Amino acid sequence: xxxxxxxxxxxxxxxxxxxxxxxxxxxxxxxxxxxxxxxxxxxxxxxxxxxxxxxxxxxxxxxxxxxxxxxxxxxxxxxxxxxxxxxxxxxxxxxxxxxxxxxxxxxxxxxxxxxxxxxxxxxxxxxxxxxxxxxxxxxxxxxxxxxxxxxxxxxxxxxxxxxxxxxxxxxxxxxxxxxxxxxxxxxxxxxxxxxxxxxxxxxxxxxxxxxxxxxxxxxxxxxxxxxxxxxxxxxxxxxxxxxxxxxxxxxxxxxxxxxxxxxxxxxxxxxxxxxxxxxxxxxxxxxxxxxxxxxxxxxxxxxxxxxxxxxxxxxx
Length: 316
Description:
Elements: E1 11-14, H1 24-51, H2 58-87, E2 90-93, H3 94-127, H4 132-135, H5 138-163, E3 173-174, H6 181-185, H7 193-204, H8 207-226, H9 231-259, H10 268-292, H11 295-315
Parallel strand pairs: 1-3
Antiparallel strand pairs: 1-2
Helix pairs in contact: 1-2, 1-10, 2-3, 2-10, 3-5, 3-8, 3-9, 5-7, 8-9, 9-10
């Protein structure tokens, strides 16, 4: 770093992240397909939850917000990935890069806090079933969601300010898929210790804090499940948490790999694959995970399909 010159960057150049130009079109079509499925799946989930009275429960209230955030979350990064592939590179202004970093941090932090809130909801449902209606009131749910958005906003403001007060070098080429922390840190010159510490400290209040809430909730849940005498009862109770547990494992697993291990020398190819996982694949999978594992959602989908069939027959 010492040999690099300081400069005031006004733009970043994202070079194509595949060394094989012939893969540009197949990757473009693949990521476009993921994005379309993400938009349709999450939009459908929100509409389904808002229109079916049987899904008017705290878990689905949180899920509707998770789906809405996932639409925005994927939209922050995927169009840029498609633009890079289509044009074999992309020039992005400093301000646009900062805005992308801000919204990505904001939305990913909300995802973390919502998953933690859903873990708490499952804890109350399994461990305090008689008090569930009293504890998980509409007011409580709104307060938890509001807190998730507020905490996400605070994290985004502080982390973006810290990241974009770094001193960058002459090299403005980013060999990555979007404006994320690891590739930006590779462009820095001089002493960035203070900014990096601020970023790390506030990261602790997102990923590890949410993980602690989730782990503690599931420790109590597992204890409650093991105390159920019948095997059928244990399986039935665990099935109410299975979808959330799968979503949590996928999301936090990729975030931990990316942000808590980035300084251990991960290869660039590994970072690209993981970034695609948590920005494109997981938002696409979440509606599938929750719809395939929940009888209420599957029944609501069948109800919509029956209505559509009747409507078509009436027209015919």
